Structures are given as C-alpha cells and as structure tokens.
Amino acid sequence: MLTDASIKNAKPKEKAYKLTDGEGMFLLLNPNGSRWWRFNYRIGGKHKQISFGVYPEVTLKEAREKRDEARKMLRDGIDPSQAKKAQKASDSGANSFETIAREWFAKFSPTWTPSHGDRILRRLERDIFPWIGKRPISEIKAPELLTVLRRIEERGAVETAHRASQNCGQVFRYAVATGRAERDPTGDLKGSIPPTKQKHHASIIDPREIGALLRAIDAYEGGLIVRCALRLAPLVFVRPGELRTAQWSEINWDKSEWVIPAERMKMREKHIVPLSRQSLEILRELQPLTGDGKYLFPSPRTSDRPMSDNAILSALRRMGYTGDQMTGHGFRSMASTLLNEQGWHRDAIERQLAHAERNKIRAAYNYAEHMPERRRMMQSWADYLGELKRAGNFSCS
C-alpha cells in the first residue's frame, strides 16, 4: 500500500517503474519525474489499462476512489475505459451521436462476444465518429449519413458500409427509445449503397468427395490433437471457434453431450451437441493426451490457450484442399445441405447449427421439441459419414 510519504520520497530512475498500491492500481514514475496513476483490469478475456490522472493533481485518496468506482463498473459488466470515453463525449454534447452510441455500446456489448464488440467499436470510431460524432443525433438526416457511408463505399469496403449503416440504425433506434431522437433515418437509405456479393464458405457436398476427405483426415500425418479436431469437426459441425476452444469441463460423459456455455456461442445462448458413439471414441482417444488440462485442443506452445484459428485450416491446406474447395466452416455447410436432403426436420437442423432464432418463445419450444430428433440425427449423421469413409460412393438417400 502506498502512502503520500512513500510517493514523495520515490526518486526517478533511468527507466520508468511502478509503485504498486494494490487491486490493479499503481503509480508509474517516469524518468522526467512525472507520476501517472494507472489501473490494470481484465474484461471480456482481455487485459486493459486506464489512466486516473497525474499525481499530485489527483491525490492518493482520489485515485483510490477512482479505482473503487472502476472495480464496481467491472462487477456490473461495464468497461471503465468505454465509460470514460462516453463521459468525455457527453461533456462535449449530451445528445451527440458519439455520446449516445457509446452509451448504447456500453449497455449492449456485455451480451456480445468480445471480438464482435471490438469490431463494432472500431467501425464506429474509424468510420462514423470523425464525421458525425459531435453532431446532435436529432439533427442528423439521411443525406448527411449517406455521405458518411459513401466514404466507406468509395474505398471498396461495401460490406463494411452496410454493417456501419446497421450499427448506426441501432444507435438511432436506441436514441428514439430513450427520447433523444424522433426517428431512425437509416430506413430512408435502403437501396442507396450497392448490395454486397454473397459470400459462401467453400464446402464439399458430393458424397464421394466427402468420403475422400474423411479418408484424408484419417491419414493426416500432423499431430494427434489437430487430427482429432479434424475428425470431430464433421461429426459435430459447430463453428471453428467453438470447436477449437472446447473445454473438457463441457463434456457430459453420462449424457453423451457437449454443453457449450452461452458466452462462447455467437448467438449468446447455451448450445447442446449430442455426441455420437464415433464422437465419444475420438474424445476417449484424445483424453489421455489433453484431459488433464482445460482445453480439448490446446496450443502446442502452452496448455493455457486453445490451438490457433488457423490450425484446422492449415491442416486442410497441407492435405491438398484449397480455399475454394474446403474451409473450417465448410463442415457446417456440408451437414446442412445433406441433412436437409436426407429429410430431417428443418427446425432440428437449424437448432443443431445454432442459427439465430428471432422468436424467443419459438426458440424455447424448438429447443425442447427437437432434442430427441437431434440426438437421432447426430448418430445417423455419424453412421452415414462412416459409410462414406469406407466406400466413398454412397448416395444421400
């Protein structure tokens, strides 16, 4: 714990150094003698830092009060750095677009994945705030917003322009709901920006080619961890990020289920993956190697982190599959296409793919109604893939 005496007696050194006060706060003493209060914290899986000002302008007591306030924000799921930026924007205009956008972001970002929130904030800070951030939100009309969006379009980032428009619309609607704007002008811009070209993840859907892919995976000469991930991917067809960050604590051996918590799902809802006999065999093979750690598929450098985003993709490339033939996401398209062709209930397929369900009541109903069918479907799918791997020439029927 610091005291005013210990701070005053501390002398500058050739390099900056820290005087720690505890609970994440420290005083950074620079070679020029300046003393800056800093607070380290972690939110959304990321380490961040915020400044509380300069000593002695900000006293030890005041710095501790700021630290306690920041810790309370963290308990409430609020990022102190974003709250500080929102307050700064508010000081320059209570109803400015940036003020309300940051308020909207602070309110809803705790329900998003960290990477999703980061992309939205960067988009707003880079492409929107510099142009209309300080403008009163109620005064921003469609032509002015279109000018901003066309700057994005003109650099060739058409998809980003559409996403920025969507985010602006969310901010405007939030402002309307909180009584600080009359309407959302983004609706008037429909058709003003060229449509984006639909992107599809490359996938193999021909049964004979699927059989060849599965045999190539079994013959993969890379490490056992990546090979097990490759073998499991077509059986469970989750998103690549959900697969690579799978944790042993999520495997329910008694129920033959993999329960992925909401915070790791794109749609922020808990997801259950019924595990086929073939999936359980892969997990039992992998368990002696990584079962003592956190992750099913840890990084080769440290067991404290999962394997990289590119691990499965790189393995597919080593096996000779190009980006136009197959991707990590391609296992999802493969399952979706063939399961639909095989006549499984569409809702059961969509629920197992963990796609968005707009109607919450319908989502809850489907969750309960289709779980037995999903279990049958996942085992049937695993059996079907086994047949393709053995013969490579089966039809979808």
UniProtKB/TrEMBL annotation:
Record SUPFAM superfamilies: DNA breaking-rejoining enzymes
InterPro entries in the record: CB (IPR044068), DNA_brk_join_enz (IPR011010), Integrase-like_cat_sf (IPR013762), Integrase_catalytic (IPR002104), Integrase_DNA-bd_sf (IPR038488), Integrase_DNA_bind_dom (IPR025166), Integrase_recombinase_N (IPR010998), Phage_int_M (IPR053876)
A Pfam family it matches: Arm-DNA-bind_3
Record keywords, A-Z: DNA integration, DNA recombination, DNA-binding
Domain Tyr recombinase: 200-383
Claim: DNA-binding is one of the keywords in the record: yes
Residue span of region Disordered: 74-93, 182-201
Leader sequence residues: none
GO terms of molecular function: DNA binding
Protein origin, superkingdom: Bacteria
GO biological-process terms attached to the record: DNA integration; DNA recombination
Protein family membership: Belongs to the 'phage' integrase family.
Protein name: Integrase
